[in-house]
Design a protein that fits this description.
This protein is mainly α. The chain contains 16 helices and no strands. The chain starts with 7 loop residues before the first helix and ends with a helix. 45% of the residues are buried.
Length: 255
C-alpha cells in the first residue's frame, strides 16, 4: 500500500531507472488512490522506454482526464508496440473527438483482433450510417454485447416489415434493463401496433430508466389524447433535461 503522504519523487528515486514493470505497477497503485497526474508520470516514463503496456495505460489515464488528443497519440504508440487492446479505446477517444471515420477504423481493428464488443459497436454504427439490411446477422450477434445494437436490430426488422419480431427483440431488451429499448418499443406500440396504453407505459418506463428523449414522445402521445397540460409538462421536462426535440415541441405548443 502506498503511503498517501509519501512524496512521489522519493518513491521513484528508489526504482531502477529502466524498470518499466515497476513503474507500471506504481502507476496502477497511484490510480487506485485517484492520483492521476502522478500515475501519468509513471506511465509516461515507462512508455518512453518503449513499453507498449505503459503506453496503453498512459492513454487510459489521459482519457480519464478527457485529454483526448494526447490519449489518442498514446494509444497509437501502444498499437505500434503491439498492444491490440488499444484499438477499442482509441475508437472511443476518436469518437469523443468527433472523428467518426477514424473511430470506425479503430473499431474495425479491434474487431479484427477478436474484440467482440468492438465488433458489436461497429455493427451498430454501420447500421446507423448505412441502413443496410445486410447487417442483420451482425446486429443479431451484437445485440448481446451492446444494447444499442438490439435497438438497431429492431429498427431493421421494422424497416423490413417484421414489426412483431421487432417488438419481441425490444421487449427482451427492456426486461434485461436496457434503457435504450424503451423509446423504440414505445414508438413501435404507437406507430405499428396501435396500442397507445402500452406505448405510454413504455415511454414512462424509459423516463424512469433515464432516457430523457421519452418525454418528447410521451408528450406527443398526450397531445393526441387532448391532454394539453400533461403534454406541456412532458415537453418541459424533456427541454429542461436538454432534449432539443422536446424544447422545439414546447415552443411550438406554447405558440
Amino acid at each position: 500500500m502506498i503511503g498517501m503522504t509519501e512524496d512521489l519523487h522519493e518513491r521513484l528515486r528508489h526504482l531502477p531507472a529502466a524498470d518499466a514493470p515497476a513503474l507500471i505497477a506504481l502507476g496502477r497503485e497511484l490510480l487506485d488512490h485517484g492520483r492521476l497526474p502522478e500515475a501519468e508520470e509513471c506511465f509516461r516514463r515507462a512508455a518512453a522506454m518503449g513499453d507498449a503496456v505503459a503506453a496503453f495505460a498512459l492513454g487510459n489515464t489521459l482519457a480519464a482526464q478527457e485529454r483526448w488528443t494526447e490519449a489518442s497519440a498514446a494509444y497509437e504508440e501502444a498499437l505500434a508496440g503491439g498492444e491490440a487492446h488499444a484499438w477499442h479505446t482509441l475508437g472511443v477517444v476518436l469518437d469523443e473527438m468527433g472523428d467518426e471515420e477514424g473511430a470506425l477504423a479503430a473499431w474495425r481493428g479491434a474487431a479484427d483482433a477478436g474484440d467482440t464488443r468492438a465488433a458489436a459497436v461497429l455493427a451498430s454504427r454501420e447500421w446507423c450510417r448505412t441502413q443496410d439490411p445486410a447487417l442483420e446477422d451482425a446486429l443479431r450477434a451484437a445485440a448481446e454485447e451492446f444494447p444499442p445494437a438490439r435497438a438497431d436490430l429492431a429498427d431493421l426488422l421494422r424497416e423490413t416489415d417484421r414489426a412483431v419480431e421487432a417488438r419481441f427483440v425490444l421487449e427482451v431488451g427492456a426486461k434485461r434493463g436496457e434503457a435504450v429499448a424503451w423509446l423504440p418499443l414505445g414508438n413501435l406500440y404507437c406507430d405499428e401496433l396501435g396500442d397507445d396504453e402500452a406505448a405510454e407505459e413504455a415511454y414512462r418506463s424509459g423516463i424512469a430508466a433515464g432516457d430523457v428523449r421519452c418525454h418528447h414522445n410521451l408528450g406527443v402521445l398526450l397531445v393526441g389524447r387532448g391532454d394539453h397540460a400533461g403534454a406541456t409538462e412532458q415537453f418541459g421536462l424533456g427541454a429542461a433535461a436538454g432534449d432539443e426535440l422536446a424544447l422545439a415541441a414546447l415552443r411550438l405548443f406554447q405558440d
